[in-house]
Amino acid sequence: MSSDTSRLGLYLLLAPIFLWLTVLIILPHVGLFIVSISEKVGPRDYDTGFANYAAFFTEPLYWRTFARTTIMSVLATVLTLILGFPIAYYIAKLTKGRAKTTLFLMCMIPFWVSELVRTFGWMILLRETGVFSNLLQYLGLVTGPVEMLYNDAAIMVGLVYTSILFMVVPLVTTLDSLDDSLIEAGYDLGGTNTSIMREIVIPHAMPGIVSGCIVVFMLSLGNYLTPILLGGKDSLWFTGMIYTQFITRFNWELGSAFGFLLLALSSLVVFLGLKVSGQSLSNTMGRS
Amino acid sequence: MIPTNPDLECRDLIKDFDTFRAVDHIRFDVPKGSFFSILGPSGCGKTTLLRMIAGFQTPSSGDLLIKGRSMIGVPPNKRPVSMVFQHLALFPTMNIGDNVGFGLRQRGVSRSEIKTRVSKVLERVGLPNVAERRVDQLSGGQKQRVAIARCMVLEPDVLLLDEPLGALDLKLREHMKVELKALQAAFDTTFVYITHDQSEALVMSDNIAVMNNGRFEQIGTPHDVYNAPETAFVAGFVGDANKITARVSSAKDGVLTLSADGESDIRVAAQNSGFHVGQLLQVYLRPEAIELLPNGAEADKASNVSHGIVDAVLFNGANSMVTVKAEGGVLWKVALPQTGGFSSLQKGDAIRTRWHPAQARCYQAAEG
What we know:
The complex is a heterodimer.
Chain A: H1 2-36, E1 38-42, E2 45-48, H2 51-58, H3 60-94, H4 97-108, H5 115-126, H6 131-138, H7 152-176, H8 180-188, H9 193-221, H10 225-231, H11 238-248, H12 252-277, H13 281-286
Antiparallel strand pairs in A: 1-2
Helix pairs in contact in A: 1-12, 2-3, 2-12, 3-7, 3-9, 5-10, 7-9, 7-10, 8-9, 9-12, 11-12
Chain B: E1 8-16, E2 21-30, E3 35-39, H1 46-54, E4 61-66, E5 69-70, E6 81-84, H2 96-106, H3 111-124, H4 140-152, E7 158-162, H5 170-187, E8 190-195, H6 198-204, E9 207-212, E10 215-220, H7 222-227, H8 232-237, E11 242-252, E12 255-259, E13 266-269, E14 280-285, E15 291-293, E16 304-314, E17 321-326, E18 331-335, E19 350-355, E20 361-364
Parallel strand pairs in B: 3-8, 3-9, 6-7, 7-8
Antiparallel strand pairs in B: 1-2, 1-4, 4-5, 9-10, 11-12, 11-14, 12-13, 14-20, 15-19, 16-17, 16-19, 17-18
Helix pairs in contact in B: 2-3, 2-4, 3-4
């Protein structure tokens, strides 16, 4: 009897998460999958098949955009790591008390406004009549106005800027947990800055690095606003393509297939990343 | 000139922080192959001193020499010293072999030589075949030995130990004391050990420096520090002691007669002490210096004999004590021998105590 009631209690407790998983994640994906394997043969007439997936592979624009999105996201992740690691190391190891809180807060403050506003901020800086362009002209370094928007570099800047916090936070947490005496012991035993970084700090921070990279990669891959606003019409992004299929072309079938391909891709890249770094998902996400 | 250079020499070492002076005119030298302890209460500056020797902090002034070479301005990774950290600081991301081999790798020793040297040093500390294990698979005492092996594999001139036994339980600590001393003798390396635990310092050291408020109060052998403390602080900090404040009422033939409020006069031997009549003194007396007199025993004239009542019996095996309330109301801690006929002693029993004037140590007390 008592085990029955406790079991009922467990189910009741788990009910919200089950509901959430089923209604908001599993059901939509199942629906999306069914849509993605439907081929339109006539008005209101559908066959089942993989023609939508085939269309992706036969049309170079689709898979090139796909590959481009992947490569740029990986690059954005690497850049964010390279920029974020020194920041996190400085916050976690070289500052104390008030300074630490202040710096951490300063990393966080830009994220209090929406991504849209932040991206417009970059547009104000980078556009032809923007701050940088005017400054360069004022200093006499260039003769005419320069357009810095609408290229891949602008997208990269935007992507790194929008996701750096999600790299810094896990890194600060893991680096904080690194005992200073380990670093001192490294020096004491004759280690140099580089060897201590390589053999002590980075192995310790690995779970934080991997979890930060996963989050940043996912955010970049799924980002829609930044590539559209900063990249303009020349810089296609795969999420933009999905949007076009759904909204502009009203081709839900192809859009769904794209959605699934994106899901498969992100899972694959995360899997490869974990394999290469020798970490497990539970190790990187489970501890903080 | 001394014929052989001491391994470690400190000359007038000073370390000032913003608001206080942590290390104040420290000077000492440690002969080669000896075990030197710095004993002091927490906050006395001993850790700062050790960190200066290791190179993690720079002295404000003074000089520090290792094997006759000044270490001022030499970074920690270039000093011929190694340190065993308080919490050992073994690298959890590496296995034991990689931990011990870390220093050798930094020196660019070849892979095969690292392997042989690591296994050799692990054997010497009594842990063969652990190289492949993870740090968390070892017990506390084993980790301790790995931490020492990690330093000793580099053959440092001086090994610094920062209270490494603090985290161990009592039984293991007792065991490691003996083991550390044996390891030090086996490696024949100079050890500098800091601790706040007097028994660690007394058991292991060849020489002890007792530190207080950034200064060395006394440097000497464990025997000297315990039996002939030079200052009141040393007498009070090292070992147990009864402490009474009394005024000199007469001085004759090197024996002072002191009187404290409400106490019977006590006599202490103080040859050439320079104390004069009327001076206020602090008298330190070890519990084991006081004898309990069996009933009917004859008291000799030279000793201090007083009557008292047993206030409490503190049974602690070989370290058992009784507190005896003397007629004047002062409580005396007296060692309780477990061999004699005092095992039936109980609270409230009347007892006589006796101690020889030469057993007590007197220091000038601050006039209140």
